[in-house]
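Milestone M4 deliverable, item 7.
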Amino acid sequence: MLYSKLFGKTRHNPPVDAKSINAKLLTQAGFIEKLAAGIYNYLPLGYKVLKKIDNIIREEMNAVGGQEIFMPVLHPIEIWERTGRDRIMEGVLYKTSCGNKKFVLGPSHEETVTPLTANYVKSYKDLPLSVYQIQTKFRNEPRAKSGILRGREFGMKDMYSFHVSEKDLDEYYEKVKQAYFNVFNRCGLKTHIIEASGGAFSDKFSHEFSVVTPYGEDTIIVCEKCGTAQNLEIAEGKVADPDEPEEKELPLKEVDVERGFTVVDNAKAHNVPESKILKTVVYEVEDVGLLGVVIRGDLNISEVKLENYMKKRLRPATPDLLKKAGLVQGYISPVNVSGNINISFIADHSIKNVKNFVTGANVNGKDYKNVNLGRDFTIKDFTDLLEVKSGFQCLKCGKSLKELTAIEVGNIFKLGTKFSKVFNLSYTDKDGKLKPVVMGCYGIGNTRLLGTVVEASHDEKGVIWPISVAPYHVHIVTLGNNKEVNQNAQKLYKDLINENIEVLFDDRDESPGVKLNDADLIGLPLRLVISNRTLKKDSVEWKARNEKNAEDMKLEDVIKNIKNFINKD
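Output delivered:
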């Protein structure tokens, strides 16, 4: 490709509204162009990368028996109402209508693929089965500010598998795990697989594939000794009890106090460590009412763990709701709660081994001191509600856990019979009995993957593309507007094309600085510079993008060495 003819060019400066690395570099280098928040055009360079990523995904999904299909973006809202996800995903659904008919722009395709499969699966002989597509999705992301990592319109490979049993699903699930590692490795990414919440897709846990990078938008918890990796939302870890001398239970005391509402304010007012504060956070739980969640003051509640425990949607209670219920914001505790207040309490295990807590007295300006579990208050149930952080101990090996920033690049779910029961997707087994089909689903954001490669592989000069997904393998740059230089460059360009080597030739009449800076910004794996200096040696200047130093290479050896360079990947 001649750079002078390429649609989409480099810019001297990144767009002023680009906050993420991928948005800055991909826009500045001429790979994408923003249309609106979370909505991007893919220019020729960017689209070439995307197609290479798609081909890698296709090869790995085909290798585990996936069959490619293509489903509609426009879904009748009735199928979403049947699963209830029109309510669960209300905040991100794009809806439209034609006359009296209402539709959803598909954020995922469980509601579409399940009734589709029900038309063709009748017997155990039709299973197992796996189908996938690579298609555009739509989600009204409230945080569409990370370039192509979190778009409102984005590409995804979603695959769905169908099985006669959980055992068969488990076996296939493991095959897909390896296929996912293959995809990410081939894209030049090292990934962690972590256990995460199933969210709106599954009642069970899912698995996410995350790439560790300082520029990530997610937090994962990793044990560097045994390799355990977990999503922050559901991570498990052991927290040490406060390092305090053995205490006896002291008499309960009510005291007047002037303080703010935070744990820090409370600890400071009573001159105690934050671990001595008995913290209560009140939630409004769907179909249940108010729930007080009690935890040690120096720790935080994982709302995903709480939601998984309750199996209900929930949200923090508003100040108005607290007031209406008769609760005093900032002074709520499970101690001596009025019988007129309809609230129950559960707690994290962390409060079990602390004596003489300080907590609110459910009256404005009053606290209790020397509060003790069992004597002064009781809890309906205990469970793990702890949001894990660095320094907690790994449950497997006891070593310290570490927080790392990462980007999620794929996720897989065991759906079970959640969707098949709704859409009557069943099969007749060998004994003639009708049973629901067991399902799994497997997603990779292909556009997100493109952005992740940039986030994980760049320097201060620009992108550093892995050979496997680079839009072109070789970038030819001429220095000086010299006839002999241009003729040799044209010949090398044509020779490379004849050898089926992907090459971008910067044939512009620009200064050496502009051309070399643009080459680094675009980030192709190999740069070849032809100039008067190199031609005097019958050579080109050879420089790999991921290396600091350049070297001269004889023109007669260039094609052979390029082939070796490309194939080593």
